[in-house]
Amino acid sequence: MIIACGEALIDMVPDTGGGGEGFLPIPGGSPCNTAVAAGRLGVPVSFLGRLSTDFFGNILVEHMKKNGVGTEMIVRSGENSTLAFVRLEKGREPEYVFYTEGSADRSFSEEDLPPALPSAVRCILFGSIAMTMEPVATTIETLVRRERQGPLKPVVSFDPNVRPFMIRDRAAYVKRFEGWAASAHIAKISEADFDFIYPGLGLEKSLEKILAMGPSLAVTTLGNKGAMALLRRDGGPLKVSAPVVDLPVADTIGAGDTFHGAFLSWLELNGKMSAGALACLSEKELYDALFFANKAASIVCSRRGAEPPTLAEVKAL
After folding, report:
1. Does the bond joining 135 to the residue before it have cis omega, within 30 degrees of 0?
2. Can you give the pTM of this predicted structure?
3. End-to-end Cα spacing for the chain
4. Rounded Cα–Cα distance for residues 68 and 56 (Å)
């Protein structure tokens, strides 16, 4: 089982279909999208966090249930749901404005953590804007430290999904970011994330720097150029790249989240979801995992909003 930790929110997506400007409420949030991507691929997955009892919170919970994501570890509370208004322009990355003050997912506290995770848990994924807010960031840090030292020893996968406008002190954020990366077995970081975190360093040197912190695997997504990974090896890292599939692009909402969920799903579906198996991936296996994830991301980009594919759709591509 994969556990997704962090925010689940409502993306307010532009809608001009009625002749005027408006917004459609769409379930989203990076960890939620990643969980849904894994659920649609048939992998056991649950969400761990705090969600509102308002009608947006109900939409989020029902969305997860409908897509095979377990909700038994969600705490419900009376705070409002987080809203993210999205601006889309052709040829540009989506722009977001978040309304998070006093929201339910931001208020996730250590008291909300279960005393123990289910014995079936094999992976914990975390990251995104949850790690720029308190108390949720410290709560997730506490969980990851606890589980890394506990009996389950799950694979930990980190995706910062950087939103610079949510970060007031860049130096302080980068310091915490490096601690989160060091606690992970997998660090999935986009090219745009690296431009913010290590400007001017270059992609491969940035990946090498991440590997030196402790992860077994550093993965970066490169938009329409595909994805690249460095796997720790004695004598130097193994570098593997894989392409995307050329499909018409509707928008890129949820592309990185779908990639992350699909990459982890490939590991789970192929019996590679352990620290030992991850470290021993062959070049072909790593390519297959990257290409599988790229296919899933290509499909979601051909659709409006974060609508990840099923396993049958990925296999058919």
Report:
1. yes
2. 0.94
3. 26
4. 19
